[in-house]
Write a structure and sequence with these properties.
Elements lengths: L3 E5 H5 L3 H13 L7 H7 L4 H11 L6 H21 L10 H10 L3 E5 L5 H7 L8 E2 L21 H9 L6 E5 L2 H9 L3 E5 L12 E3 L7 H17 L1
Parallel strand pairs: 1-2, 1-4, 2-3, 4-5, 5-6
Helix pairs in contact: 2-5, 4-5
Length: about 240
């Protein structure tokens, strides 16, 4: 039985890719590194730790762990300032609120998940936290009012959510726009839905895919969920 539908924060609920890119570009340019769009496209779906490590190797910087951590923390500061200084409804992915409302009308829980601990801050900043029965919470108590600038990555936010909610993966649907996210959903038995933004050959093991969030058909998603789960039950 379907109990909850999860939406990944960055890429499905909101589009913050340009803000992340500008923050990384700034922090690397301070250090004389040409972090351009080509490099960003190579790392956009990686964690903060993975990005600094990748750039360190790509540009043969030979930085220490402390220096890498400082770059990552500086990126967080810049990202925080951009978010704090702006409140733009255009950050919200087109059609996603409609999809969320359709899920809630069916008395199914809605969750927002993220690998970072800034999920709560961003949902509040955009005044859309009211739509979610669950969202990834920050580790430290003070982070609900200020965005975190520290390195912190939740290895599998959906696994964390399912454990906290005491729900099995097979009782959930989850949307993401990265292959990494889809793999995490599949690993816990969730019905995975890919928003591919026309990225070809990405996450071929997703159970269902749409090109854009405004194409999401909740009735179709739920129908396909039950079709797959009924087939598995029959087997």
């Amino acid at each position: 039985m379907l109990k909850i539908v999860f939406f990944d924060l960055d890429g499905v609920i909101v589009k913050l890719e340009k803000i992340h890119y500008l923050a990384w570009k700034s922090v690397f340019s301070w250090r004389g590194i040409n972090f351009n769009e080509k490099t960003w496209n190579e790392v956009f779906d990686k964690s903060r730790q993975e990005i600094v490590a990748y750039v360190n190797d790509k540009f043969k910087l030979d930085l220490t762990n402390d220096e890498l951590k400082k770059i990552s923390d500086d990126k967080g500061v810049i990202f925080k300032k951009i978010i704090a200084d702006n409140q733009c409804s255009s950050w919200i992915c087109e059609g996603i609120i409609k999809a969320i409302e359709e899920v809630k009308q069916k008395n199914i829980l809605v969750g927002a998940i993220s690998h970072s601990q800034n999920c709560e801050f961003i949902l509040k900043k955009l005044n859309i936290i009211k739509y979610f029965d669950y969202y990834t919470k920050p580790m430290n108590k003070d982070s609900d009012s200020t965005i975190s600038t520290k390195i912190f990555t939740i290895e599998s936010p959906i696994k964390k959510a399912l454990n906290e909610l005491k729900i099995s993966g097979s009782e959930s649907i989850a949307f993401d726009d990265t292959e990494k996210g889809i793999n995490e959903f599949n690993d816990v038995g969730s019905f995975s839905v890919m928003i591919d933004y026309y990225k070809k050959n990405t996450a071929p093991n997703a159970k269902l895919r749409y090109h854009f969030t405004n194409e999401i058909n909740i009735n179709e998603v739920i129908f396909r969920y039950y079709l797959v789960n009924n087939d598995e039950d029959d087997n």
